[in-house]
Amino acid sequence: MKPLFRLPIRRKLHQELEDEFAFHLDMRVSELMARGWTQEAARAEARRRFGDIDDARAFCEKTDHRLGKRLMRTEFLTELRQDIGYAFRSLRRAPGFTLVATLTLALGIGATTAIFSVVRGIVLRPLPYLEPDRLALLAAVYEGDNEPYLSPANAYDWRSRNRSFSSMAIVEGHTAILTGAGDPERIRGYNVDADYFRILGVEPIIGRLVFTPEEAAWQGNKAVVLSEVMWRTRFGSDPTLIGRQITLDNERYRVVGVAPAERGWPGNSMVWYPFTIDPARLADGRGAWYVNLIGRLKPGVTLASAKEDLRTIGLQLEKEYPDANTGLGATAVPLHEWITGDLKRPLFVLLGGVAFVLLIACANVANLLLVRGVAREGELAVRTALGAGRGRLVRQLATESMVLSLIGAAGGLLFAVLATSLLVKAAPASIPRLSAIHTDGAVLLFAFGVSTVTGLLFGLLPARLVVRRDLACTIRESGRSGGRRAGGARVRRLLIVGEVALAVMLLSGAGLLIRSFDRLVRVDPGFRTEGSVSFALSLPDAKFPTREHQAAFVASMMERLRSIPGVQAAGTALGMPLTAFSWNFNFAIAGRPPLQPSQQPTAEIRVATPGYFATMGMPIVAGRGFTEADRAGGQKVMIISEAAALRFFPGENPLGRYITSSWSRGDATLEGEVIGVVGDAKQSSLATATLPQFWAPYDQWPVTSFNVVLHSARELQSVVADARRVIKELDSELALAQVKTLDTVLAESVAQPRFYMILLSAFAGVALLLSAIGIYGVIAYLVGQRTREIGIRVALGASRQRVAGLIVREGIALTSAGLVLGVLGALAVTRLMGALLFDVAPTDPVTFVAVAMLLAAVGVGASFIPALRAAQVDPAMTMRAE
Amino acid sequence: MPKSPADLLYGTLNLLVLKSLSWKPMHGYAISNWLHERSRGAFDVDDAALYKALHRLEELGAVGSEWGLTENNRKAKYYRLAPAGRRLLKDERTVWNTYALTVSRILKTT
After folding, report:
1. Quick one: average pLDDT of B50-57?
2. Could you tell me the CA-to-CA distances from A401 to A111, A373, A414 in Å, in that order?
3. Is residue A255 a contact partner of residue A207, using CB atoms and an 8 Å limit?
4. Closest CA to A833 of A344, A430, A359
5. Rounded CA separation A861/A587 (Å)
6. β-strand pairing of A223-227 with A251-259
7. Average pLDDT estimate for A143-167
8. Residue contact A24–B47, C-beta within 8 A
9. Is A223 left (phi over 0), alpha (psi -120 to 50) or beta?
10. Is residue A477 pLDDT above 70, yes or no?
């Protein structure tokens, strides 16, 4: 069990056995010779009587070795028990030290463990599906980027032509209104292929998750699978629900099964419907991308070969359908990577940051141990004198560190559990898999591992240093306190320099995130947020089957909303700013040479009612906005964004130009004369560039899902309450969803960067505090060591300022060395943060200068108190103390 | 069936070694001589077998050992009876006596 000691022990046992046999033979020979045998004959006789000596040697060596091992093990355990008992006693004797050290460690280990449990839950933990690493998201490759949305026609072709996936299933977002079970509620759902859950490998809680062919057919039997959350909250976990019907979008659907929570994908889904499409319309919709496709790799097929397979299919389809597919490739991304890919970097940056905090905590505890070690040199010397070997002493000190670290770990784990649940609560809802974060076995193991490494890290170095000193010398000089211990002091200084360097790196990272966040929130979103609230509404197709129905409803709803007292403006639009909404269309500009559809320019297309731009505070910079006159039967019109004017009409006047597209619904086509240019509003986030947008008037291109925005000087909650009432009067089965003030929308759009910034800043703050404590501790120690020297200097006429300056200079020297190292390290490390930064270079000089100044101030501050104490040294007292 | 006392002895060597040590601690050579004398030369035990028995008993914890000096100032490994060995000796002796008694009774009746 201890290979280090094995060899000498084996050799010792062998030697002893040889000695024992030699003694026996010698005695026998002497006895025989005393009886008159010749030496030679006596030897032969002795050997004869001994019998098979080699057999005896082999046998005895084996038994001795077993015995030796057992004895060593018992001895080791006894010593360990002694050491642990001793450690506890000596820690109890120094309660101040123990408290500070364990708190520091608990903080470091706890914070690290908490962040690790987040990283594990989100990134490291496999998806909760059967063989999750065999699942992939199939994506198009368009202009070099992976595009997760496909047209159903392409998706079907990929599915039928590939030879790499055992199955594939389409997933398409679908919101619905649930009625007839309490208040109407707008819920998130997905249309999925019949064997979708079979691909994921998810088993039902009750019923079945796979749709029958009758259910999966176009206009077939209507069926749904419910999520466990919905089943429990809306239907009271009723097991007899299976086979019964519920009302979604005013139509009756038979419930066929319930899917377990946390295992449905996408995670926010409440219901799953069969995905169906009118076979007659499949072919001409190849250019409309709106479904996702997931697949399970065949056994033995690698992702790389599957990608190659898909690439070939992409090329084939490009040739076969040049209109829709030119420039469109096909590839696959592991599902896990697709879900968590964007989070890996920020989370690992946080984990790195918190590891720095832990290292700094280790350095501080190592320093404390060194100071304590010096105080205990006398005690250790006595133990050595009483026969304890150096190895034994190191082991005892290491045991003490381990005990300390394990106590720290216990506290840290408690802290981690609290911190983790706080983190999960505080984390932006846009982070996926938050519910997968638990303090599980892996997290416990991690905490234990971290504390072991920590214990060794901060414990072994001081232990070796303390023991290495000439202990006899210690006893001799233990009466005196003046002897300067260069070795320990150097190590201590190095620890501080390292600690400061780490703190600088952390502060730089945090500083960059703060600067970046500051830049981000200064970005003009392009719309007014104050005093505005929005909500989403969808109109069930069954109840509002035609465009006329939809337009009529919206017109009367807008009229009533505007008449709510205090509402200054109201508007409705498809596609709110700062949401992930993205609807693209390709178009042609009349009067320009015609292009193939796949070569045509594309832009975002959105829909708005008259008054929407005014409500949002989006300025009309040229031409006019939509009016009530822009009706379904009238002249077709469009408004374009500034970015669109710049991109598609550079140096031209876009007003009066005519836009056409192949998009049509029934007898309506998406086209119109450009009548105005509206200011840009940020789309997916403040950080991303604004894409060109085209707007159609709602009356000419009605949609069934949209957002309503109200602007009012009144308190917004009561405005929403009024709006809810007004809409209920119009139709009691409609449900308002995503009710949010625009201030909230704006805040949520920066919630993730804010979260990372706050966390990393917190780590940096803790690092700064720990470093300040560390610097203070070392300077104070050095002052203590130099009391005599200082006394002499004062006696020789040095002024108190001079003495204080001497000490502060020491602090500045340590801090500067750490600063230089830290800045170099930070320059190397912050490059990894590039993707997290907005409009700030990873080498941003402002950040680095600020960090340097902050640390210099902390360094001076932390050495100031010991310096003052040094200045008060009474020369007469120090001399006498000698 | 054992043909000579020596063969029979092999199985009961442990018992005899323990018995020898019940007087005082002894080194291997002394035990060898003790056995020779006590059996009046009848059991000429293989020394190799003796040492194997000693080391095995030590591993079992029945005997302990330490290095000491002989009267002639030579270093030798002394064995002593451990408490576990004393118990073992008592048990083995009972077994042996019962066995010997039974065997001799059977032999008498024949």
Report:
1. 92
2. 20, 12, 20
3. yes
4. A344
5. 66
6. parallel
7. 89
8. yes
9. beta
10. no
Question: Which chain A residue lies closest to B72 (C-alpha atoms)?
Answer: A27
**Nearest beta carbon to residue A49 from set B47, B67, B75:** B47
Question: In the block, which residue shows the tokens 């070392």?
Answer: A778
H or E segment at B35? helix B28-38
Q: Which amino acid is at A689?
A: A
Strands A532-538 and A705-712: antiparallel
A290 at interface of B, judged by CB pairs closer than 8 A: no
Chain A positions in Cβ-Cβ contact with residue B56 (cut-off 8 Å):
59, 63
Minimal C-alpha gap between B100 and chain A (Å): 28
Give the count of beta carbons closer than 10 Å to the beta carbon of residue B95.
Answer: 12
Q: CA A631, CA A697: separation in Å to the nearest integer?
A: 8
Q: Report the residue from B32, B52, B74 with minimal CB separation from A60.
A: B52
Report how far residue A691's alpha carbon sits from residue A683's, in angstroms, rounded to the nearest whole number: 8
Measured between alpha carbons, how far is A150 from A289 in angstroms, rounded to an integer? Answer: 4
The whole-angstrom distance between A8's CA and the closest CA on chain B is 19
CB-nearest to B51 from A16, A56, A67 is A56
DSSP secondary structure string for all residues of A815-880? HHHHHHHHHHHHHHHGGGGGGG-SS--TT-HHHHHHHHHHHHHHHHHHHHHHHHHHHT--HHHHHH
CA end-to-end span of chain A: 50
Q: Domains of chain A: which residue ranges? A: 3-82, 144-326, 342-522+751-881, 544-732
Instruction: State how far the Cα of B27 lies from the Cα of B77, in Å rounded to an integer.
Output: 6
How crowded is residue A34: how many other Cβ atoms within 10 Å of its Cβ?
Answer: 9
Residue B91 lies in domain: 5-109
Cα nearest neighbour of B77 on chain A: A20
**Three-class secondary structure of residue A795 per DSSP:** helix
**Contact present, A507 and A764 (Cβ < 8 Å):** yes
Chain B residues near residue A27 by CB distance under 8 angstroms:
29
CATH number, position B86: 1.10.10.10
A372 Cβ partners below 8 Å, 6+ apart? Answer: A94, A97
Query: How far is residue A256's CA from residue A246's CA, in Å, rounded to a whole number?
Result: 11
B58·A24 Cβ contact <8 A: no
How many domains is chain B built from?
1
Dihedrals phi, psi of A15, to nearest 5 degrees: -60, -45
Judged against a pLDDT cut of 50, whether residue B33 lies above it is answered with yes
User: Closest Cα to residue A596, out of A282, A404, A318?
Assistant: A318
| Interatomic CA distance for residues A541 and A219, integer angstroms | 14
Which chain B residue shows the shortest CA-CA distance from A46? B47
Question: Which pLDDT band, with edges at 50, 70 and 90, does A878 fall under?
Answer: low
φ, ψ (nearest 5 deg) of residue A201:
80, 35
pLDDT for A488: 64
Among the partner residues B27, B29, B76, nearest to A28 by beta-carbon distance: B29
Q: Quick one: B99 exposed, middle or buried, by C-beta within 10 A (0-12, 13-18, 19+)?
A: exposed
Whether residue A216 is predicted with pLDDT greater than 90 in this model: the reply is no
A43 CA: distance to closest CA in chain B (Å): 14
Report whether pLDDT(A463) > 80.
no
Partner B contacted by A23 (CB < 8 A): yes
Query: CA A411 → CA A91, A104, A350, A352, A415, distances in Å?
Result: 16, 10, 21, 21, 6
**Closest to A570 in 3D by CA, of A538, A536, A609, A544:** A609
A contacts of B73 (beta carbons < 8 Å): none
The percent of chain B in helix, strand and coil, each rounded to the nearest 5, is 65, 15, 25
